[in-house]
Amino acid sequence: MNNISYIATEKLLPNPNQPRHQFHSEEMLSLANSIKENGILQPLLIRRMNNSEYCEIIAGERRLRAAILAGIPTVPCIELDCDREKSAVVSILENVQRQDLTFFEEANAIGQLISVFGMTREDISKYLGKSQSAVSNKLRLLKLPADVRYFIEKEGLTERHARALLAIENDKDLWTALNVIKERGLNVSQTENYIATFYAKPKRKKSDHRPVFKDFRIFVNTVNKAIKTMQESGIDAISDKTETDDYIEFRVKIPKTVSTEPKLKVLSAKQA
Q1: Known catalytic residue: 61?
Q2: What is the number of structural domains in the chain?
Q3: In this structure, how many other beta carbons lie within 10 angstroms of the beta carbon of residue 67?
Q4: Is the pTM of this model over 0.85?
Q5: Are strands 44-48 and 55-59 parallel, antiparallel or unpaired?
Q6: Are residues 11 and 59 in the same domain?
């Protein structure tokens, strides 16, 4: 079991891979008051930086900030033996698992695990206890431009609002829709209906394309072969072919009764 030690707040440095970017003042003040009253109940996770007196936070930056706000000089920490890369991965995973990130922060964190640390969506889904489709849906949010994401967070729109906006490809239309959503105060259902009405992508019609054979002789040979097959099977089919500059016409007569007498092949002198 790892021992808990108390470390001065000025010796603790934030993790550059921290996925959280928003520390709301009201929430921080509330946490600071709680820490004043009850102390820090969950120690911070840290790693020593090159055997120096400074440590990098793996998990717990929010608690550190609140402790500083509360005027507490030292905080309880558990030191882990890990390198910078493992520290970054643990920091991101720990923050995502806590489920108190914004949906865009979570999407960025998952994207970072894939692009920087080479984790697969399957790996992430196992670590986070989410389905791969849920992980993929989070990543899709990053397709929205950065300024659009900022606007969505600033206006307090939901993740489902953001998902609905993914259907709009044109940036100009995207901002028009955002302003309508803001001005009319559209909820998620209203937003989805609005986007489906004005910005829905036209459904592609099933192609009526048929393979084109430029050499008509393929079809002529097919008809001739069919007639020959009938004749060899005892059907006295008679065909008449007329060819003009514009088309070829086949007239085929097929008797309804089939002759049971075997056909005798006429042998040429050479065959005899």
Answers
A1: yes
A2: 3
A3: 24
A4: no
A5: antiparallel
A6: yes
